[in-house]
Amino acid sequence: MRVARVLVSANAPSPWVPVNRLQQSFSVDLGVLFHTGASLTVKAQYTLDILQPQTCTWTRSGTTLTVNLPNHGLSTADSVIAQELAAGLDGTYTPASIVDANNFTLTVTDTGPLGGQGKFTPLRVFDHASLTGLTARASGSLGSPVSAVRLIPTAYVSGIAELVVSQARG
């Protein structure tokens, strides 16, 4: 059995937790726990996309970073992992806008180079059917193959929420 834990302690999503989607008998159990005194609302999300970065070009003007990634398939509800851009620009983002089928924008800090090449992992995101709008401990499962899961706050005042991911080896 493989168990992974990630914490959310601010108004930002947890890192993505990769899942072995190729195992013969797929099953992932999810548990959402709240530490004492926590005041936040969270939801679990998953992606069917493989966590495989793609090298492409980008430009930045102020806080708007425009990425040229042919046939990205993203919406403004999805997620993008940016790597090897520059200090202060790498991270996980939600697309700010979809320019067209080949370009999207991210909101970043107004620092660093104005363009270059980087690695971007586009992830189309889905909310878990029952683990959404949570303010108290809950559990659920995923019976169909997914690539990764994460916990994301939808309202944050204070405290810590934890996502426990358990996957049988098979």
Structure report:
The chain contains no helices and 15 strands. The protein has 170 residues and is mainly β. The protein is globular and about 45 Å long. It has a 7-stranded antiparallel sheet, with no helix packed on it. Strands 1-15-3-13 form a 4-stranded antiparallel sheet, with no helix packed on it. It has a 4-stranded antiparallel sheet with strand order 2-14-4-12, with no helix packed on it.
Structure in a nutshell:
This protein is mostly beta strands. It has strands at residues 2-8, 17-18, 28-34, 39-47, 54-61, 64-68, 79-83, 91-93, 97-100, 103-107, 115-123, 125-127, 138-142, 148-158, 161-167. The chain contains no helices and 15 strands.
- Record the strand order, biggest sheet: 8-7-11-5-6-10-9
Number of strands: 15
Helix content: under 10%
User: What is the count of helical runs?
Assistant: 0
Q: Which segments are poorly predicted (pLDDT under 50) over 5 or more consecutive residues?
A: none
Shape: globular
- Sheet having the most strands: 7 strands, antiparallel
